[in-house]
Amino acid sequence: MTSKLIDYRDYDKEFWYEELEEWVPKRIYDCHAHMLNNSLIDDSSEHKGVFPDADFEGIRGWQKTVFPNRDVNNLILGRPALGTRINEYNDWLFNELRDNQFTKSHRLTTPSDSLEDIEYDIKNKGFQGLKVYRMYSVTGDMANCTIDEYLPHEQLELANELGLWVTLHLSREDGCGDEKNLNDLTEFTTKRYPNIKWILAHIARSFTYRPIQQGIDTLRNLPNIWYDLSAVTDIRPYITLFNNEDHKRIFYGSDAVESVSFHGAYTAYGHAHQQVETDNLPSLTFSHTTNRPILCIYEQLIAMKQASIICELDNDQLEDIFWRNAVRDFNVNW
Ligand SMILES: [Zn+2]
Q: Looking at the domain covering 2-329, what would its CATH class be?
């Protein structure tokens, strides 16, 4: 199955051994990995069959390939796809993960899910939190929705009551630099929903330098905020985060599988960013070198590595980020 999930090339392997083998800690707790099951997506959905299935074994195989010689455990997140039959999907996650004592999971949750279903799954199926996504916004506008448009207040109340984690991919033009998002996170964490623990995915959705630069002075002073580092390949957001945040609030995450399995990167151009898959651009000839593009997951790791050197993170802090923070905060006995 793994071979369908990744095209691992000689350049990737060489890059790992040149830059990463010595630097990446022996243990990784991946706080942002998705499992996909196309059979649980309605036939009419444009998202059905676009990417190969990734069950838990597939995720483990993928990680064995991209993180050689490492022990890896996971926070598995529900994978957003339009047309997903939510209850069946969450049942599948539960059944795939039930025998794995080191694995945690966040329930795929949309605004139309009933409070009863959510509560039942939390209490009976081992989910420690929710994975919500802007694609399910009640406004239909995934690019510019507010948090409560994809995680409605009645679900926020329940999450607060149960003290849940929520993995949040911020929407709106400036992600965590957006004033409305910052005001909401301030109100939610300090007043209205003080028991919810937020994981702001992709460095609080900073694929360029600006969102985290604009948001960090607010976010660093809020309780119950954590970040995952998944899929960010620009070094600048890492530098801002590492220089300004408590490293104990930072989790490693990959965004496995397909979001980081291509050759290329999420490239920043001014205040815009774009997934650039180099295989799809025949005009790129790389005529100055015999070197060739590497996997996006390695672009992420090399950005992290270089930022950690610039910001003088020590090995202990790196171990915290790569696995110890998650193990402590999720109560994993690893
Ligand atoms: Zn993701």
A: alpha beta
